[in-house]
Specification:
InterPro entries: Dimeric_a/b-barrel (IPR011008), DUF1330 (IPR010753). Pfam families: DUF1330. It is built from three helices and four strands. The chain has helices at about 15-30, 65-70, 75-85; strands at about 5-10, 35-40, 55-60, 85-95.
């Protein structure tokens, strides 16, 4: 089952971004991940708090592949740069529609 990773990013500095994009994109793609969106065009329609400065949406072939990426040795230093240069959230969402279970 496909799995989606959603990154909500608010930057405290941008010094890490170019190196991150250059090196993490191939790591994601090597595992079969596909970037569906990397954008600062974000609008909060409901809920509390503000919109993040940037949202990243990645489709992975499965949750196992997404976790393999997130916990890989290759990603570790870039994950640290992301955490040191921004704050936000990184969320995994299973590509399962529970409404279909009701039909």
């Amino acid at each position: 089952m496909k799995c989606y990773a959603i990154g909500e990013i608010n930057f405290s500095n941008h010094h890490w971004v170019n190196d991150y994009l250059k090196n993490v994109t191939p790591l994601v793609e090597k595992l079969g991940g596909i970037y569906l969106a990397r954008t600062s065009s974000v609008e909060l329609l409901e809920g509390e708090g503000g919109s993040p400065q940037t949202v990243v949406l990645i489709q992975f072939p499965s949750k196992e592949v997404a976790m393999k990426f997130y916990h890989s040795d290759e990603y570790e230093s870039y994950k640290k740069a992301w955490k040191d240069g921004s704050h936000g959230r990184f969320i995994l969402v299973d590509g399962h529609d529970v409404a279909l279970d009701q039909i």
